[in-house]
Amino acid sequence: MLSSSHAVLVLVLWALVHAGPQTNFHPDMTDQELFWGADQYDFAVVLRAEGMECFWHFAHHGETFYLNFMVQWVTGVGHGRHLSVTVNAPSGLLMSTIDDAKGQISFEAAETGFYQMCFNNFHNRFGSLQVFLSFGVYYDGLQDPAKRKEEDKKKKEEISRDLNNTLGVIEHASHKVENYVFHMFRYYNFGRMKRSADHFLLLSNSQYVTWWSTALSLLIVTSGYLQLLFLKRLFVTKTSGEEQKPRC
After folding, report:
1. What is the pLDDT along the chain (248 residues), one digit of tens a residue?
2. Burial code of 9-42, b = ≥16 C-beta within 10 A, e = fewer?
3. By C-alpha distance, which of 56, 39, 33, 42 is closest to 132?
4. Judging by beta carbons within 10 Å of its beta carbon (0-12, 13-18, 19+), is residue 70 exposed, middle or buried?
5. Backbone φ, ψ for residue 150 (5° rounding)
6. Rounded to an integer, what distance in angstroms lies between the CA atom of residue 72 and that of residue 10?
7. What are the residue boundaries of the structural domains of the chain, listed by start?
8. Terminal CA-CA length for the chain
9. The GOLD domain covers which part of the protein (predicted)?
10. CA nearest neighbour of 62 among 116, 143, 152
11. pTM, full prediction
12. Residues 6+ apart with CB under 8 A from 56
C-alpha cells in the first residue's frame, strides 16, 4: 500500500509528464480543414442553404497571405450570389471581410499561427452555391530590415569590387522572374474562376429561357384550343329540319 505522501508525489509527477505545450491547435478539426505549409490550394466547395464552412491555413510572421474566391453557380429559388467571407488572425482579430460574389484578400501576416477563413451563405436561404477557392502564402522579403540592409550593402561592395561577377545578378533576376510568374499565375487562376462562373451562368440562363419558351408555347396552344372550343359552343345546331341553318 502507498502512503499519502507517495500518492501525492505520483500524482504530481504524472501531471508534470502529461502537462506540456499544446501542439494541436484545433484537435476537433480534420486534416482536410487544416492546411499546413506555404503551398497554394485551389478547389471548389458547395455551401448549403444558410450554411457556413471554415478552413484554416498556417502562416508565419512576415509572410503574405492571400485568398481569392468566386461563386460559380447557385441553385434554389432566390439565386442570391452574394457570399459573406471573413478572415481572422490566430488571436481572433478580424483581418478582412467581403460580402460579394467574388473577391480578393491579401495582407502580411503579423503573427504566426492558423488563419481562419469562413464562408457564410446566409444570403441564399433556399438554395446552395458552389464557390471556387484559391488561397495560400508566399515569401516576399522575409528578412529583418536591418539584416536586409546589411546584405544589400555587402552586395553593393561585392559588385563594386568585381564588376564581372554576374552570378548574383542572374540569381536576383531569376528570383524576380519567379515572383512575377507566381503573381501571373494568381491572376490567371482568378480569370479562370471568372470564366467558369460565366459558363455556369450561361447554362443557367439557357435552361431558364428554354423552360419559359416551352411553357409559353404550351400556354398559347392551350389558349387557342380553348378559344376555338368556346366559339364552337356559341353555335347551336337544330336537327329537326335539314333546311334550317345553324344560327347564333
Report:
1. 444 444 433 343 444 334 333 334 444 554 444 555 446 888 889 998 888 999 999 988 888 899 999 988 888 765 678 899 999 999 999 999 999 888 999 999 989 899 999 999 888 888 888 999 999 988 765 455 556 667 777 777 776 666 656 666 777 788 888 888 888 888 888 887 788 878 888 888 888 899 999 999 999 999 988 988 888 887 756 555 555 555 55
2. eeeeeeeeeeeeeeeeeeeeeeeeeebeeeebee
3. 42
4. buried
5. -65, -40
6. 60
7. 26-201
8. 117
9. 52-137
10. 143
11. 0.51
12. 25, 26, 29, 33, 34, 35, 114, 115, 116, 117
Instruction: Using DSSP bridges, classify how beta strands 41-47 and 94-100 pair: parallel, antiparallel or unpaired.
Output: unpaired
43: left (phi over 0), alpha (psi -120 to 50) or beta: beta
Instruction: Give the whole-angstrom CA distance, residue 67 versus residue 193.
Output: 13
- Record the cell numbers describing residue 68, joined without a space: 481569392
Cell of 46: 458547395
pLDDT value of position 231: 84
CATH of 26-201, one of 2.60.120.10, 2.60.120.260, 2.60.120.380, 3.30.420.250: 2.60.120.380
**Beta partners for residue 134, in sequence order:** 42, 68
Q: Which residues 6+ apart lie within 8 Å of 31 measured at CB?
A: none
245: left (phi over 0), alpha (psi -120 to 50) or beta: beta
Displacement of CA 19 from its chain's centroid (Å): 38
At 89 the pLDDT is 94
Task: Report whether 97 contacts 115 (CB < 8 A).
Answer: no
